[in-house]
Design goal:
Mean pLDDT: 90
Strand content: 15-25%
CATH topology of the largest domain: BirA Bifunctional Protein, domain 2
CATH superfamily of the largest domain: Bira Bifunctional Protein, Domain 2
Shape: elongated
Low-confidence stretches: none
Bound molecules: phenylalanine
Strand order of the largest sheet: 1-5-6-10-9-8-7
Length: 336
Amino acid sequence: MREELERIGQQAVNEISLVKRESDLEKIRIRLLGRKGEITMLLRGLGNLPVGERPAMGNLANQIKIKVEKALAERKQALGSSEREEVTSLDITMPGRENWVGGLHPLTRVTQEIVEIFTALGFQVALGPEVETDYYNFEALNFPKDHPARDMQDTYYLAEDVVLRTHTSPVQIRVMESQSPPVRVVMPGRVYRNEEINPRSFTVFYQVEGLYVDRDVTFGDLKGILVAFVERFFGLSVPIRFRPSFFPFTEPSAEVDIGCILCAGKGCRLCKKTGWLEILGAGMVDPAVLAHVNYDPEEVSGYAFGMGVDRIAMLRHGIDDIRLFYENDLRFLRQF
Ligand code: PHE
């Protein structure tokens, strides 16, 4: 038993001197000195020894117990002070690292704001693909085969009859194909046109399309919803006007202007001295379009509109160059 005790003691002291973490010291303490620890059990077994041997053996066991406890305590202190050394080597006068918080792109935010106004008015949201077929982008929207908008100049062709959509109107067709009237949806998304790049136009931009088809939908309903939108987005004091226009898929068609926000209608560079800025195209869905999706033009009518998100975002934030939205210069983007 004497040898056993001495062996345990020596081995423990060696082991403790090698420990690197405080939690390992605790494990060793439990293994040796815990309620069922090796040394504890030996001390308990003293009662089985002949009476004469008990005092000497008890004494030895206690000495070893004390030696192990001391080794544990010393090692613990040594580990603690080396941890403290590391802490004091931190330069607490060093300036902190800046935390950059990401944010939504201004076009994303304006798109969301527009969509929220319409969902509050009872519209659903639908999305469609950016790569479209000629059928959805043009044919079903009543573009005659020789319409100039189909020219290679405006449209990016990926293959014969496959294009990057030039507007969000093809989503109208997809929605009407997949559900029967009444439909009331807004369709946000990115569109592409092979246009000259300048402060007012870029090859990529965003639109929010709107469509409402039901019994007895009138041009008055269209005006009502668009006036409500402009009032909510730009405020009550901004004037709005409807101008007659043309789109192959609406009849009659209109373009909608709002009073120039920069010059309050006096005439400036942004509004080209007219005092008005165009923000969207709209009209009553052409019966030929309804027929393409097997809606009965005798039974239902509808209105549609498509607004330019970039233009609206420029007005909202007083930005005079559309290209800023696509350069991803953080100095610009962080302002929003
Ligand atoms: N798609 C048209 C454009 O991009 C806008 C529009 C949408 C016009 C819906 C009328 C109805 O110019």
